[in-house]
Design a protein that fits this description.
The chain has 2 helices and 8 strands, in the order E-H-E-E-E-E-H-E-E-E. The protein is an alpha/beta fold. It has one domain (7-120): 2,3-Dihydroxybiphenyl 1,2-Dioxygenase, domain 1, CATH 3.10.180. The strands form 2 sheets. A 4-stranded mixed beta sheet has the order 1-4-3-2, covered by helices on one side. A 4-stranded mixed beta sheet has the order 5-8-7-6, with helices on one face. Strand 2 and strand 3 (41-46) form a beta hairpin. GO terms for molecular function: dioxygenase activity; lyase activity. It comes from Glaciibacter psychrotolerans. It holds the Pfam family Glyoxalase. Residues 4-120 form the VOC domain.
């Protein structure tokens, strides 16, 4: 059996605001933004270098209540550089924490969905 996680739905309250946050601030690529006739809007975004994307939109079900999705991990090679780039784009990113040789820094999207930057096997900068 073969399985791949390739798409994670993220509930948001404002699709345009969230699309701007993920593309302009965080640097995700916009794969597509479609609006079928049934009132649904589907926006798929992919982190640079990732095989897994996120999908946001309207009419797809789910509750866009604040902070519905927590702890999604973006694995990076250089957490300090990524953190500084995101901060330079306007993201509020926590200080880097060393948790036994695994480094973490955290941020949230405008709806409170939370993300972790993770660098494995490194000493804290």
């Amino acid at each position: 059996m073969k399985m791949r996680l390739e798409l994670v739905p993220i509930p948001v309250s404002d699709v345009d605001r969230s699309t701007a946050f993920y593309t302009e601030v965080i640097g995700f690529g916009l794969d597509h933004d479609v609006q079928p006739d049934n009132g649904m809007r589907v926006v798929q975004l992919t982190p640079p270098g990732s095989a897994c994307s996120i999908v946001i939109g309207t009419g797809m079900g789910g509750d866009p209540a604040e902070g519905t999705v927590h702890g999604l991990h973006l694995v990076v090679d250089d957490i300090a550089a990524v953190r500084e780039e995101l901060r330079g784009r306007g993201a509020e990113v926590s200080p880097i924490q060393d948790q036994g040789g695994v480094l973490y820094a955290y941020f949230s999207d405008p709806d409170g969905n939370s993300w972790a930057l993770q660098q494995i096997g490194a000493a804290a900068p």
